[in-house]
Design brief:
By secondary structure, the chain is α+β, with helices and mostly antiparallel strands. It is about 35% helix and about 25% strand. Bound molecules: zinc ion (ZN) (3 copies).
Length: about 325
Amino acid sequence: MPLSKVTYPFPIDGDVHHIFAGASLDHWKKAAMRNGFTLLGRAKDRLHVVLGCQSCGTATLKRVSVVLGHKPECPHCIHTRRAAAAQSIGATLIGADPDGDRHYGLFELDCGHVDRRQYHRIETAAAGGHKASCSICTEERYAEEAQCHSWTLMGPPVRKGQNYRNYQHTCGHAQDVAVVNMRNGDLDCAGCGETWASKPSEIYILAFTIPNLSVIKLGYSSNSECRMRQVQIDPARTCGSVLRKIDIETGHRAICVEKALHSHIRRNRPDLVVPPELFRAHLRTTSEIYHRHGKPYIEALLDAVENGWDPRIQDAIAA
Ligand SMILES: [Zn+2]
Ligand SMILES: [Zn+2]
Ligand SMILES: [Zn+2]
């Protein structure tokens, strides 16, 4: 059967298509109708039909077999839905995946980076009301976190899983380290033998502003200023600062004292604990956040630690 010289008077999926002379069968029309389309005619070859979407009014080319045996979908409606999902989380759908994977699209994220993303991930993020994380920004943050502890981010892990990266120490040795351990500086160098447990550390009080609330974070790190910067998702809004820090001889002692202080505060001043749902969207931490008015109380605890008080012993007696 012949392909006519006459084209459809409207674009089909953005292209000009020639009319294919031949009957449109009744059961094709019914199948199209059941799926929300009007069968407009045949095009390209004997295997294809032109459908008009009853939702958006746009024409699309489909195989007859898809119309009869599957659930044909309107690519224009899908594109509109995906673009709207992207927009609702501050991103822009730029186009199809440059690598040709139909599950991926190219997006400009709200940070300005352009990245391939799975469509369903963008739609899930939009449905959940959270932002699409940017892999470029994430790796930049991991590099900064490593720098705070005299390591350099080299790239993906050599042997370990996706929560790890490969880092190089100032001594030249490179190894895989869990991202969360690098963040806190909790790692030992297998090259020169430097261990976090024996390195000097600090216990800090950081201050942040989250919408309508002033909070403080109590924690430990070998580099409190770095930690303060990293914990903020949008520093311009949370305006972090280091209020106080005390030196602790070793990382090992810092983690023990810090844990004991948190359980001491939870037991004696549970009113100071800020529920995670209030800060989760603004600070990269899961707990350890207290109301700002608790500062004098928590500072008094740090004074006591500096004067030789061991909150672990206190805990042992109270328990
Ligand atoms: Zn449509
Ligand atoms: Zn980014
Ligand atoms: Zn080393």
